[in-house]
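User: Sequence for proton-translocating NAD(P)(+) transhydrogenase below. Tokens please.
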Amino acid sequence: MRLAVLKERRADEARVAATPETVRKLIALGNTVAVESGAGTASGIPDAAYAEAGAEVSPDAASALSGAGIVLKVRAPLAEGEEGPDELALIPRGALVIATMGADKDSVARMAAAGVDAAAMELLPRTTRAQSMDVLSSQANLAGYRAVIEGAAAFDKAFPMLMTAAGTIPAANVLVMGAGVAGLQAIATARRLGGRVSATDVRPAAKEEIKSLGASFVGYEDEESKAAQTSGGYAKAMSPEFLAKQAEVVAGAIAKMDIVVCTALVQGRRAPILVTKAMVASMKPGSVIVDIASDAGGNCALTKPGERVVTENGVIILGWRNWPARIPAAASSLYARNLLTFLTTFWDKDSSKPALPAEDDLVRGVMLTRGGQVVHPNFAAG
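Assistant: Structure tokens for proton-translocating NAD(P)(+) transhydrogenase:
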């Protein structure tokens, strides 16, 4: 079967869906692999490395997709009207397209009309069986790391305590908001850099996880917070009353912070505002807010997605989009392995192609379209 790997063309996207390592393993499954020229350049992977791994390097998307039965991408295929080639129109009908789709009803309908079988990896159920193919976790982990590194670079004082003959520089006070995968990695990274770290999260299980990493817990707890987590491990949207009480507790902590890392996301919704204008105004000049949730609007009221902002009182707010793509080589490596694991899990050796049983919980979770029909319950009509 021919498997195509396309170059990503969306703004701020530097990742690629396959690496030379995964190309070799995809070929070992019985595939021929075509990689569009330049697909790995932004991740530090030249065309020659793919060719050495056994891939055909195709000059453009059309030639890579010609006859393809499987298409690997980081983001959804470009459609008519978007900047770049109409990738969706170039994909052969019946091909399996695997990517993080960020889909809505209109885009899912377009994929169904194009006759592609679309798998949205961000919708993978968060179960033990799915851990090794969980793209949200692998990418969030790196986003949490990168956020602290960029926060440290923007901070105009030292991160660890430095004792010198000229005097002592105190360690940076760091608050991590949200203790999911990204938040826990941010805590660990800030601790490794020598910061004094505290963290907050509405989920009851998070308190012990925060403490286990050597950080202190900041937060308001009541009966609502005991049920603040879905069965899939995500944070639930909380009531305005709870958020107001949580904000009171957090506001006192934020005024003392040098660096605040915002990581709180509610799946499928706008990110909750956790850092208000008043909280930002209470912070010291030179303090830094790093907002990983910027793609969903941001956790800080003053975040401008895609921009670096300096407030009137001198607080720096980093609201870059697509944080995993800011560490593209590592992010591509993990993402490519996630996709490889998904394919090998459902690979039929006899027919040398994926077998995706509709009754399987992982397949049911990710498949948006099949055989020209919308099959995912979140997007199906009715």
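The chain has a mean pLDDT of 93.
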